[in-house]
Amino acid sequence: MAELTYRDAVAAGIAQEMERDENVVFLGEDIGAAGGVFKATVGLFEKFGPRRVRDTPISEQAILGAAMGAAMTGLKPIAEIMFSDFLAVCWDIVANEIAKTRYMTNGQIALPLVIRTANGAGSRFGAQHSQAVENWAMAIPGIKVVAPAFPADVKGLLAAAVRDPDPVLFFEQKSLYPMKGEVPDGEHVDELGKAKVLREGKDCTIVALASMVHKSLDAAAILEKEHGISATVVDVRSLVPLDTQTILTEIGKTGRLFTVEENPRLCGWGAEIVSIAAEECFWTLDAPMVRITTPHIPLPSADKLEDATIPSVERIVKEVSQKMD
Amino acid sequence: MDTSVKRKKAGSPPEIDIGRETRMELYRQQLELRYCEKRAYDLFLQNLIKGTSHLSLGQEAIAAGFGVAMRPDDWTFCTYRGHAHTLARGASMAGVLGELMGRECGLLGGKGGSMHLTDVSKGAMGSYAIIGAHLPVAAGAAWSAQYRGTEQVAVCFFGDGTTNIGAFHEALNFAAIWKLPVIFVCENNLYMEYTPIHTVTAVEHPAADRASAYGLEKIVIDGNDADEVYKTAVKFMDRARKGGGPALIEAMTYRHSGHSRADPGQYRPKGELEKWLEQDPLKRYRSRLLEVGFNEATLKDMEAEAMRKVDEATETAKASPVPGLDAIDRDVWADGSTAWRN
Ligand SMILES: Cc1ncc(C[n+]2csc(CCOP(=O)(O)OP(=O)(O)O)c2C)c(N)n1
Predict the structure, then answer these.
(1) Is B312 near ligand 1, meaning CB less than 6 Å away?
(2) How close is the Cα of B235 to the center of ligand 1, in Å?
(3) Using the 8-state DSSP alphabet, how is residue B324 labeled?
(4) Per-residue pLDDT tens digits for B225-248
(5) Are the C-beta atoms of B142 and B165 separated by less than 8 Å?
(6) Whether residue B161 has its Cβ less than 6 Å from ligand 1
(7) What is the pTM of this model?
């Protein structure tokens, strides 16, 4: 096992798949010699050359449209959208074209492609460069949605996404890029649609995604130490497909559910999980379920304001401990 | 096809002779596209076709010219006004009419409808109902041909109104900088939906006048002349195949019917349609064929044969059952299921 940063794991995952399959190509803005604005793709251009690692103009519709056209004719493109907020610029291609094509064509057209994008807050970039938008994608039939929290998952899930026959939106949490972790050497491929239980507790289940997984783990340690509350922490990892079984099983064991997400309050993915739990394991619940989210506001930029908007370790500790009383 | 592409010297534009067989093919296609679309209109009136539909009556020379010029493994991308383009690639006529009627035999099993006709086995890579969305997609297909060195070409049809949407400009620049083998074909029928294009566009030729912005040449052709379309198609597809990059072609034409099923086209000034009916591509092509030595009997036979084919396709489509409800949740995902959770 090597110790890699989350950002290096991105490059490692892409390199692994490009080495394996000549049809895997990579395109996006500044991804070539520049190595990506987040330096998550450093070395790929040197290794695979401009034929396979292609800098594009600032043309988000063309980037994803071209990825789609290439995917339907035999390539396996990985396309980068620099910040997930910019997906709105090419949302037609995502929501109307890529997601619907297989269905509308009665299975004639397959689109094995991956859209990678930097998601989420924590960098003081303000409301147009900081949103977590994975819930936008989750609402559309036909597109898979993945959001890893650890370097090993970045490499393994990215490889799984490239090999998946369906289109996958891959949300990288930008605040996690510098984070280090053990990553299996050699070929590493994970499985989409499997949640992970990172910590087992008796009193409550916290379900989280991406950076909120780390905050939930930290909160769980404090809850244990300072409040005597023992929490299970589940990393969802993939919203579509969703590992409902693991989530329901863990809720069943503790009887209490907290979801922690970066999305604004309305229609965040936590609402879906809460609603599934209400329908399918209501009788195992001991108390109302609690969603910890951002308020329904655009993201502010200043240190103090951004920190107050995004669920923090302290807030998770506070909400969980208060509700558990 | 008996088309020969000759060059005076390497690099100079090819001179194209249109042989007798190619001419017959061009006429046959135009007849079939015309008769089939007229049939679709009749089927609407009988309420056998629901929803909306966009006919390209009067624009057949463009679909036919390209259809005949394309290699079977080339790709076509078209719009919601895509019946003719799809048929011109050789898609089953019963499959097209069946799809319009929502039958099981439809090209998309009834899941796509008129605006999404697709037949991948014939290189018809989809009909896109969002204005301009398919231009970057066509560029992407061309990229994959270039990447794999297959010498395939992607041909992308769209209307004049499409030239004012962002995706048009993104795709053109993208295709030009990567020298992709894609031919963008603007069918300028003078109207975007109900609005005359010149009232919403700052240049006279909405596509061709902008070509230079992408380093491309200005090409305006008579889109009602199948020979001219065919020659242009051969010339630029040949160039694209050999690495010469994309072309943007503006073909001038006119739709005889309204924008869609619901539109009687009353916004058009008096006399305009009549003037264009004189330029009807079928009428012109018929005279051309007689001029170059075809006899009346041959043409009559071809016309009867095209009609017979449409009749037969209509009967096949009508006889096809409506799709079973089990089709409803197939093909969301590659594994055939709709399951988004376990
Ligand atoms: C993005 C988008 N905006 C608006 C429409 C509605 N619409 C459908 S067809 C059309 C006119 C298109 O005109 P043109 O590109 O000239 O094509 P034509 O119909 O003449 O073939 C419009 C506005 C649409 N389908 N997509």
Answers:
(1) no
(2) 29
(3) P
(4) 999 999 999 999 999 999 999 999
(5) no
(6) yes
(7) 0.96
